[in-house]
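In response to the reviewer comment on reproducibility (Comment 2.3), we provide here a single inverse folding case reported in full, input and output, so that an independent group could reproduce the run without further information from us. The structure tokens appear first.
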């Protein structure tokens, strides 16, 4: 008889992997562990054919309760996000930028396994279950075995969906889990995983890594690398990296734009008291969050930064204006609003002349 802890992301693979272990008669208890991080997205709106709007709002906990019926624990790794960010963006072993995401996934999974291992020991569980599949994010058998060993969990991590492609784990060797009931899926076998899910009574849209992990956004990694050069690495600063229009001017000016209503609502959540807010009234134009070390700026430098931000916002109007555009701005800590009239930038080259770059 054995007890397991299942790493649970809310993905279809993690649901199916957990259910396969719940069916093992010699596994007396499975506890679900969901790890939250500033680099991960949470399940919020899940497509549902039974919903009038086409979406039902459920959390990872809701999904676990609906399909797995096992004790659920959610743990925030916010305290570890600096470590996570650092290991995610270490240079890859072969020095090629193209392997960054693969290297990041290996290091990130290693950290999550370490957290799961500590939890396993604390609650007296015998092994760890994950929904990892061979070939996912480019990680083959060798890489998966390596990350498990580096996490100090060799032989303790069972991956039910790809177990037959991997060496036997302690759970199989000791007869806690019947290896014949496990699978040998690869990342390319997504339809087989969906079919198995249906057999197990799981009818839900997948929550793939492309939606869960911010590092899968093409521009997020380079922006994170740039942010790590700064002294202040905060969750707030990490959240801003996701916005498509993210401008930097050395040494310390950041200009983030929200274009449509959804982006503006999201951006609204990240203004700090010392930030500057800029918007174009009367037009469906962008809103800008401007962040800088204002205390070390002269009045003329502050005026120049505000003018640049206004010109950037004007440059991203859906309809190019003729002539000057009015922009309103204010510091969040002040109720007083000011106006400025500017002309939009005409080309990327003109932006570069002002040392501005869209990263």
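Designed residues, in position order:
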């Amino acid at each position: 008889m054995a007890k397991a802890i299942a790493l649970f992301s809310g993905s279809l693979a993690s649901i199916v992997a957990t259910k396969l272990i719940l069916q093992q008669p010699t596994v007396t208890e499975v506890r679900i562990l969901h790890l939250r991080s500033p680099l991960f997205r949470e399940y919020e709106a899940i497509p549902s054919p039974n919903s009038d709007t086409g979406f039902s709002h459920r959390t990872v906990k809701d999904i676990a309760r609906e399909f797995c019926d096992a004790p659920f624990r959610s743990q925030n790794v916010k305290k570890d996000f600096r470590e996570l960010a650092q290991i995610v963006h270490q240079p890859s072993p072969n020095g090629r930028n193209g392997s960054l995401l693969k290297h990041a996934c290996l290091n990130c999974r290693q950290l999550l396994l370490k957290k799961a291992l500590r939890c396993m020991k604390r609650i007296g569980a015998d092994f760890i279950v994950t929904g990892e599949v061979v070939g996912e994010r480019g990680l083959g058998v060798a890489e998966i075995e390596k990350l498990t060993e580096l996490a100090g969990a060799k032989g303790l991590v069972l991956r039910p969906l790809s177990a037959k492609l991997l060496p036997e784990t302690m759970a199989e060797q000791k007869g806690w889990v019947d290896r014949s009931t496990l699978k040998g899926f690869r990342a390319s076998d997504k339809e087989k995983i969906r079919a198995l899910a249906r057999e197990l009574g799981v009818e839900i849209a997948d929550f793939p890594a492309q939606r869960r992990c911010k590092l899968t956004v093409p521009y997020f990694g380079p922006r994170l690398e740039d942010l790590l050069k700064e002294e202040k690495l905060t969750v707030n600063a990490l959240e801003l990296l996701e916005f498509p229009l993210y401008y930097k001017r050395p040494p310390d000016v950041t200009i983030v734009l929200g274009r449509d209503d959804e982006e503006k609502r999201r951006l609204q959540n990240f203004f700090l008291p010392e930030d500057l807010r800029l918007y174009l009234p009367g037009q469906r134009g962008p809103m800008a969050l401007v962040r800088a070390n204002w205390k070390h700026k002269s009045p003329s430098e502050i005026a120049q930064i505000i003018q640049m931000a206004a010109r950037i916002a004007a440059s991203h109007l859906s309809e190019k204006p003729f002539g000057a555009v009015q922009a309103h701005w204010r510091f969040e800590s002040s109720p007083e609003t000011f106006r400025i009239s500017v002309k939009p930038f005409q080309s990327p080259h003109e932006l570069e002349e002002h040392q501005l770059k869209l990263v």
